[in-house]
Amino acid sequence: MFLTVPNDFTNWKKIANIDTSDEFEGVKVRIPTRFRLTLDKLYLNDEAHESQEEYEEDRAGAVANEHAINLQTTFKNIEHVWDENPTNYHNKDFMDNISLITINLGKIHEIWTKLCILVERAERREHALALDKAKFGDFLGIFIKHNHTVYDLNNLANPKIIKHQRPNEEQQNLGIINNILLSVTNLTKKSKELKDEELKIIGSDILESFKNYQDYITSLHFLFDRFKEYHQISSRDVSFLLSRIDKSNARLLQIKSKSDVKGSDVDRLITNIQMSHDEILKIITRIILIKKCVMNEYKMFQTTKYLVSEILQDFFTKRVKYSDLQHEALVKCFHDLQDLPLK
Question: What is the DSSP string of 241-293?
Fold first, then answer.
């Protein structure tokens, strides 16, 4: 019942599903009096009343009515133990709040999952674009290597010209063009190296941070799932136990009004009431602990909003850094290209 997200998320899911009987073993809590039944007033045994006549008088009087009202009030308090807000038990909105948070948490999880996918997809596209730019540089290098076989009149008019002959103006211009075009190939190589470095950091650190935050959302969702699952089970058990107490108490009052009542029947019903009451107190103890734990975990989860700040800040810091480096290389290449001979 805790919100811990290690790197090994699969094993965490196993740890997070510890049975509550083990999770809260040995932990004690003071149960408020509003959840406690006054058993001696429930079954009005012989130690509390010396005679059947006195029992009948009490049962018919105002005291009996008060006991009945208190009994129903306690039953109602127990039935609404899940709804009580841990910070103010007069507010019965806790389960409604859990349901609303669960719905909104699902929306946040869906949105963040799409963000993770988009970041990863964008990085793959930029990597593909960097590869295309690198290929552009490679092909441009091949063009530079072979363009002299076309851009020289001697190739057609005098192909056997002596190689060490002083180059003419056109040949010199071609050499200048090729040398400057080499800065473009250098730019594409540099751009590819910077993009590889950027993608390595974003893919390993930034994207991992995106997914870690996603794990926190998932873990809280699992926590609420376990919470609601135990809520259903315990509510069913409490309802059954309260019904058994009510029926046993009614049966006890019924048989004690008879003259031929058996002591063993009375003892059996009293034992049933006591055992049911003790079991209810155990369940209520666990409910209180679980609600307190969920509140603490939800309080811990509030700090994860600062992870969003760190993730986006780090993400764009890295993007700006490498964008600046890319821009510097691009500007240098641009200035080199201004020296290209045009005519």
Answer: HHHHHHHHHHHHHHHHTSTT--HHHHHHHHHHHHHHHHHHHHHHHHHHHHHHH
Decide if 194 contacts 326 (C-beta within 8 A): yes
- List, for residues 254-274, the tens digit of each pLDDT value: 777 776 667 777 788 888 888
Domain spans in the chain, listed from the N-terminal domain onward: 9-119+193-330
pLDDT per position as a tens digit, 127-162: 898 899 899 999 999 999 988 888 877 777 775 655
What whole-number distance in Å separates Cα of residue 288 and Cα of residue 86?
Answer: 8
pTM summary value: 0.71
Predicted pLDDT at 60: 45
Nearest 5°: the CA angle 267, 253, 245 is: 70
Across the chain, mean pLDDT equals 81
Closest to 245 measured CA to CA, from 56, 15, 37: 37
CA distance 291 to 86: 7
* DSSP annotation string for 68-101: HHHHHHHHHHHHTTTTSBTTBTT---HHHHHHHH
Q: How many CB atoms lie within 10 A of CB 149?
A: 8
Name the residue among 103, 102, 125, 106 with its Cα closest to residue 114: 106
Q: Which of 1.10.3470, 1.10.357, 1.20.120, 1.20.1270 would CATH assign to domain 9-119+193-330?
A: 1.20.1270
